[in-house]
């Protein structure tokens, strides 16, 4: 059934940054999204990038065997979201795939949510695979922590972010990367005012909270490493109104000191 | 008599068929890509290349070499005489007596060919090659007899009427079968094709530098704006196709190929024959030699315009090669297997993006971090944090630029590097390193077919090197040595490059370091392919070992016949499974000479051979052996320090 000739897949790609050398490259999660797009729609799946991204980095996506990458020119200071919304409104699309967050710049991971909000499409986060599409609905396999999976049925069109659990991106090759077209269009360039005021400093590694496991045997350790965390004071709220659920979340955030 | 008109007819027919076949064959080669050759100079040089260079290789097998001289020399001479005598009917003792001698020589040679064919070694191909000696005998025997009979050297009516007819019939059969094998078969793809294609291959060889005792081992530069690698047989250069056609299926390459011996799916002879199938079109059903281990013969098919991978050759075959060049060194027809293999790999990597196993990751790392391990490019000098090495960037000028190579990221290789630094310091050599400015040499990328990455690394390194003044580059890595020495030149980098074994040996000869005698047991020396066959350095390492008082117990396969450790050509990265591991076989070679230590001269060899399970001989790099044996000038003897002794009271 794959690749599906009628399916319209667009993958939003950004220029990544190698963690050691800082060099521009294809972003790892975005590349996995491209791989998934290739599986579903073959070389007809579209690549979209907003901004004045580095050419070497972008060409690595073309090196995966796609003939064209649409580069929506919006300037380095522009907000990517309005340009993408405009692009997606004018180009019929069934599925939008992208990584969870960019490897450089703001990297807030907000783009898919903002797009979903403005287009009115569902957003599925951290998917590992899309298994099939039937009657306008896709069976999407979502990756949960510790190797768990959840199967969701999502109506088209939708937006999905691709988790590291998805199949690894194929090798990019020099020949197709060189031949691929970087097609440029001009997009809505709305300057991201808020961001202009920010200052950037290199990130410091965050201290990790150690999880002390008091296990006596290998089996115990294995369980501790793989089992779903049980309870731990958490609470699953199924009933109640949205407002009550939101209040419960707010309460938790205040008690954890996230919101003051 | 009957022969008077039949023989010239047969001769003309055979010669005509040869000509048609030859033109057809030449057109098959012309399907390849253009490559400029010196037409006249090449043809003029051909006899010398045959008599000197080719025989230099053939002579490694003395009997076979004499056999070939007699048979081939006899054949060429007899053909040159048969045409005037039997086609134009010239009658002269000056022609017939030499013809008798020539055919007799050829007959003698053919007997030896026949004898070898009775119990052929496994490396020889059977099939049509089995009938060749019979036809050689038929051809030379018949023409000898015929000439004897018609030369008037025998009394009149020697045989009587009936005897004459019987003999004529026998002679006719002999002549017909001989001519069809030797002339018709030569043009139409029979075993004798090797003579025709082989002669032209010698004339138009792609690496003419190899003749006259020269060496040419660097890969040819690739134009990245053109076709990337070889996808179909027609993408080879025309003279590469010609070279494939020259193969005599002697299997010498097969006998020395480490991948074949390890049971990996590669047999260089079969590969060349598959290329012949590809250039001529058809299947490998008629191939009668050893297969690729684990692969059935008869399934491969191809033609000049069909992709090679998928159908003709499996990608695994191409990725099994360690680029050790043992096959090239051994091939009497001077065929360039490694060039062909890397050409095909280049297509797989640069066009298909299908470098197997860790290949993609290594290439990605090289692109992103300039080293195959993906380490922080700013951490290149961590290995020498305590050594206080002079940096080129600070000094600008030094006698020796020490090329550290990616060994700096590997803990085992670091021991070799540190040993070499201690030697440099002991000899007071004025040296400096590039530090973080150094990038991978590009060797692995290129052997994996990624010439784009190779070129970007090479150009980057050349630009870096051009900023500084130094007399020579010295490195402990034979791969970097080969690439900088033989392959950077095409991109404008010309340097005097030395391998550390050569350099240390120089220091010893100049008396700049003193060495103690080595006190271990039996030592053998493993020649790294990229030092020996690629660069002809067999002597310095041995001289150095001798300076340490070591008498090397040579392994059966050493020097130009050294067996690869399995580490070259990216083979450990692509890691194609076989039945054995090449490194195990190499260590077995060393065990056979009861070596307790294997001296090596390459960090890759060290890694491969040390990967063999214990108990096995110890693996030591030359630099380590020398560093251990350094006699350090005793420092000014200071006042003797005496410490109060601690006594045991009870
Ligand atoms: S390639 Fe060379 S060594 Fe190998 S079989 Fe042919 S002629 Fe012999
Ligand atoms: S280069 Fe070495 S491994 Fe490759 S085919 Fe030749 S002999 Fe075999």
TrEMBL record, chain A:
Family note: Belongs to the ETF beta-subunit/FixA family.
Glycoprotein listed as a keyword: no
Gene3D superfamilies in UniProt: HUPs
Domain Electron transfer flavoprotein alpha/beta-subunit N-terminal: 30-179
Protein name: Electron transfer flavoprotein alpha/beta-subunit N-terminal domain-containing protein
UniProt keyword RNA-binding present: no
Domain of life (superkingdom): Bacteria
A Pfam family: ETF
GO molecular function list: electron transfer activity
This protein's UniProt keywords: Electron transport, Transport
Record organism: Saccharospirillum salsuginis
Region of interest (Disordered), residue spans: 222-241
TrEMBL record, chain B:
This protein's record includes keyword Transmembrane helix: yes
InterPro entries attached to this UniProt entry: 4Fe4S_Fe-S-bd, 4Fe4S_Fe_S_CS, Csal_0991-like_N, Cys_rich_dom, HdrC_iron-sulfur_subunit, Helical_ferredxn
Domain of life: Bacteria
GO MF terms held by the record: 4 iron, 4 sulfur cluster binding; metal ion binding; oxidoreductase activity
Entries under Pfam families matching the protein: CCG, DUF3483, Fer4_10
Tagged with keyword Protein biosynthesis: no
TM regions (residue ranges): 6-23, 69-88, 94-114, 135-154, 160-184
The protein's name: 4Fe-4S ferredoxin
Species of origin: Saccharospirillum salsuginis
């Amino acid at each position: 059934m794959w690749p599906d000739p009628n399916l319209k897949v667009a993958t939003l790609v950004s220029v990544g940054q190698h963690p050691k050398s800082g060099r521009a490259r294809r972003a790892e999660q975005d590349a996995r999204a491209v791989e998934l797009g290739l599986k579903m729609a073959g070389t007809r799946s579209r690549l979209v990038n907003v901004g004045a991204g580095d050419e070497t980095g972008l060409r690595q996506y073309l090196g995966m065997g796609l003939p064209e990458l649409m580069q929506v020119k919006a300037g380095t200071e522009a907000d990517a979201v309005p340009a993408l919304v405009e692009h997606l409104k004018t180009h019929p699309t069934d599925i939008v795939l992208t990584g969870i967050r960019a490897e450089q710049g703001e990297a807030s991971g907000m783009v898919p949510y903002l797009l979903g909000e403005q287009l009115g499409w569902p957003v599925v986060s951290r998917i590992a695979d899309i298994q099939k599409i039937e009657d306008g609905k896709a069976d999407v396999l979502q990756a949960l922590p510790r190797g768990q999976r959840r199967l969701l049925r999502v109506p088209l069109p939708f937006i999905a972010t691709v988790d590291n659990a998805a199949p690894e991106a194929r090798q990019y090759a020099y020949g197709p990367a060189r031949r691929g077209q970087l097609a440029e269009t001009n997009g809505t360039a709305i300057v991201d005012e808020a961001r202009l005021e920010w200052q950037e400093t290199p990130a410091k590694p965050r201290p990790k909270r150690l999880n002390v496991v008091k296990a006596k045997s290998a089996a115990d350790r294995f369980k501790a490493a793989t089992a779903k965390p049980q309870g731990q004071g958490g609470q699953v709220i199924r009933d109640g109104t949205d407002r009550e659920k939101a209040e419960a979340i707010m309460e938790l955030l205040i008690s954890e000191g996230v919101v003051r | 008599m009957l022969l008077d008109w039949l023989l010239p007819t047969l001769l003309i027919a055979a010669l005509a068929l040869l000509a048609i076949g030859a033109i057809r064959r030449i057109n098959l080669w012309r399907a390849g890509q253009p490559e400029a050759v010196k037409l006249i100079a090449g043809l003029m040089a051909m006899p010398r290349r045959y008599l000197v260079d080719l025989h230099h290789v053939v002579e490694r097998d003395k009997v076979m070499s004499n056999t070939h001289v007699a048979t081939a020399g006899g054949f060429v001479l007899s053909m040159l005489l048969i045409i005037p005598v039997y086609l134009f009917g010239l009658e002269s003792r000056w022609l017939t007596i030499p013809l008798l001698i020539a055919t007799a020589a050829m007959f003698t040679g053919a007997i030896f060919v026949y004898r070898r064919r009775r119990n052929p070694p496994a490396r020889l191909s059977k099939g049509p090659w089995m009938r060749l000696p019979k036809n050689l005998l038929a051809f030379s025997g018949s023409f000898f007899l015929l000439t004897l009979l018609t030369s008037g050297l025998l009394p009149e009516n020697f045989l009587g009427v009936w005897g004459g007819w019987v003999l004529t019939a026998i002679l006719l059969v002999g002549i017909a079968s001989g001519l069809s094998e030797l002339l018709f078969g030569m043009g139409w793809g029979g075993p004798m094709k090797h003579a025709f294609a082989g002669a032209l291959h010698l004339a138009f060889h792609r690496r003419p530098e190899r003749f006259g005792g020269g060496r040419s081992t660097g890969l040819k530069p690739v134009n990245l704006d053109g076709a990337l690698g070889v996808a179909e047989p027609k993408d080879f250069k025309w003279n590469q196709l010609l070279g494939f056609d020259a193969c005599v299926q002697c299997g010498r390459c097969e006998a020395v190929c480490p991948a074949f011996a390890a049971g990996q799916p590669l047999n260089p002879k079969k590969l060349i024959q598959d290329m012949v199938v590809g250039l001529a079109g058809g299947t490998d059903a008629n191939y009668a030699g050893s297969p690729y281990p684990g692969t059935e013969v008869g399934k491969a098919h191809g033609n000049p315009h069909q992709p090679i991978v998928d159908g003709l050759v499996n990608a695994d075959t191409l990725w099994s090669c360690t680029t050790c060049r043992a096959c090239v060194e051994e091939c009497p027809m001077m065929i360039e297997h490694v060039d062909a293999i890397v050409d095909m790999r280049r297509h797989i990597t640069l066009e298909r993006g299908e470098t197997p196993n860790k290949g993609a990751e290594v290439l990605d790392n090289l692109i992103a971090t300039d080293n195959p391990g993906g380490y922080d490019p700013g951490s290149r000098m961590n290995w020498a944090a305590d050594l206080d090495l002079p940096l080129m960037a600070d000094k600008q000028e030094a006698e020796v630029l020490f090329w550290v190579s990616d060994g700096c990221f590997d803990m085992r290789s670091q021991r070799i590097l540190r040993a070499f630094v201690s030697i440099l310091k002991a000899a007071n050599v004025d040296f400096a390193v590039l530090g973080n400015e150094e990038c991978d040499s590009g060797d692995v990328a290129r052997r994996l077919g990624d010439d784009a990455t190779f070129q970007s690394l090479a150009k980057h390194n050349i630009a870096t090197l051009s900023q500084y003044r130094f007399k020579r580059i010295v490195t402990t890595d034979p791969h970097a040595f080969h690439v900088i020495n033989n392959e950077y030149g095409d991109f404008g980098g010309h340097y005097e490059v030395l391998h550390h074994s050569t350099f240390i040996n120089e220091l010893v000869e100049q008396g700049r370091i003193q060495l103690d005698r080595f006190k271990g047991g039996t030592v053998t020396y493993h020649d790294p392919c990229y030092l020996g066959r690629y660069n002809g350095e067999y002597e310095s390492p041995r001289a150095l070992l001798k300076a340490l008082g070591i008498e090397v117990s040579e392994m059966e396969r050493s020097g130009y016949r050294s067996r690869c450790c399995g580490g070259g050509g990216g083979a450990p990265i692509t890691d194609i499974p076989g039945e054995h591991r090449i490194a195990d076989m190499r260590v077995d070679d060393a065990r056979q000479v009861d070596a307790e230590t294997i001296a090596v001269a390459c960090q890759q060899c060290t890694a491969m051979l040390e990967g063999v399970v214990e108990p096995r001989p110890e693996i030591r790099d030359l630099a380590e052996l020398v560093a251990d044996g350094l006699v350090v000038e005793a420092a000014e003897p200071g006042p003797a320090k005496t410490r109060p002794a601690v006594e045991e009271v009870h």
